[in-house]
From TrEMBL:
Domain of life per record: Eukaryota
Name of the featured protein: Cytochrome b5 reductase 4
PROSITE patterns in the record: CYTOCHROME_B5_1, CYTOCHROME_B5_2
Family note: Belongs to the cytochrome b5 family.
Keywords, sorted A to Z: Heme, Iron, Metal-binding
InterPro entries tied to this protein: Cyt_B5-like_heme/steroid-bd (IPR001199), Cyt_B5-like_heme/steroid_sf (IPR036400), Cyt_B5_heme-BS (IPR018506), Cytochrome_b5/Flavoprotein_Rdt (IPR051872)
Source organism: Grifola frondosa (Maitake)
Ranges for domain Cytochrome b5 heme-binding: 69-145
Gene for this chain: cyb5r4
Length: 150
């Protein structure tokens, strides 16, 4: 017996039901693909990528701005809230965030929101997966203590 005739091209239009089954052209569309959710990443200035930050950390420069590890009270923390002198605490550890500002993939403005205060909640709600203790180890200023304990 001869083989069955090949299905005509017309029956291979997208979505056309035919005996061609899986040979049919997959359905297609000219609609643009959905855009991924906006994540607020900013374009970093040249020389300010993650590798540049890693190199700066290794360079031996003092990125803490202090000579010893400090006991930091809430009122001390509050005094360091300008771009050139910004501290922030994350889970009890206080970091000098000034040197990291131009390297922050979310932008300086976002990072400055936590200058002079506890940034733990904002940090956890934006990117809990980022290892802050590793990223900012060279920027450690000290540890939070209560107001009366210094
Ligand atoms: C000093 C502590 C911080 C470090 C070390 C840090 C580090 C990072 C890193 C590595 C990324 C890229 C994440 C990725 O690609 O998955 C990022 C992105 C971002 N960060 Fe931060 N960040 C800090 C604090 C903050 C704070 C306090 C905020 C909010 C006020 C914030 C907001 C953002 C946003 C909006 C993005 C871009 C969106 C995203 O990738 O999810 N960051 N940050």
């Amino acid at each position: 017996m001869p083989p069955p005739p090949l299905p005509s091209l017309a029956s291979r239009r997208p979505g056309a039901s035919s005996s061609a089954g899986s040979l049919a052209v997959p359905p297609s569309t000219t609609r643009p693909p959905p855009q991924p959710a906006k994540r607020g990443k900013v374009a970093l200035a040249p020389g300010h990528g993650p590798l540049d930050w890693a190199n700066l950390k290794k360079s031996g420069q003092n990125l803490r701005g202090v000579d010893t590890v400090l006991r930091v009270t809430p009122s001390m923390l509050k005094r360091h809230k300008t771009r050139d002198d910004a501290w922030s605490s994350f889970n009890g550890k206080v970091y000098n965030i000034t040197p990291y500002l131009p390297y922050h993939p979310g932008g300086e403005k976002e990072l400055m929101r936590v200058a002079g205060r506890d940034g733990s909640k904002l940090f956890a709600s934006t990117h809990a997966w980022v290892n802050i203790d590793y990223m900012l180890d060279e920027c450690l200023v000290g540890f939070m203590v209560s107001e009366s304990s210094t």
